[in-house]
Input
Amino acid sequence: MRRIILIGYMGSGKTTIGKALSKETGMMFYDMDWYIESRMHKTVSQIFAEKGEEAFRKIEYNMLHEVAEFEDVIISCGGGTPCFFDNMDYLNRQGDVCYLKATPEVLYRHLLMAKVERPLLKGKSQEELIAYIQQHLQEREPFYSKARYTLDVSLMDDYDKIIISVQKIRELLKL
Output
C-alpha cells in the first residue's frame, strides 16, 4: 500500500507530474481540485465565489481526508491544502509527501501558460501577480518545507524535463 502526495504552489506542476507518474507506475491519480469539483458538482472557482475561501477550505479538508485514505494512489493537492488546519501533519502521516519547489519567476511563467482560471489570481496585473506569488510563497514555505521530500521543478518547461522530474521522484521515493 502506497500513497504519494504532491504539494507545492499553484503552477508547480503537481497535476502534470502526478499524471505522468501515474502512467508510469499504474497507480491511480487524484487531483484534489478535480475530486472536489466532481463531488460538489461545482468548479473550485464557483465554490470560492459562492461560499468564500473559508468554506472552500473546510470542504477541501473533508475531501482530503477521503482521498488520503485510498490505497496505491498519487494525490495532487491544491496549492493551499498543506497550509490549513492540520493538513500538512496529516499528509505526512498518510504517505510520502513530495514538495515540488520552484522560484516565483518560474511559477509566474507556468501560471501564464496555464489555461485554468485561478480564483486567487483573478484581476491582478503582471506586477501584482509576481508580488502576490512572492509573498504567498514566502507565507506557505514553512508548511511546504515539512514535506519529507523536495524536488526542484524550476526547469520543467517541456515534455523531456517533465519526464526527468518524474524519474527524479521515482528515485527519491524508490519506486
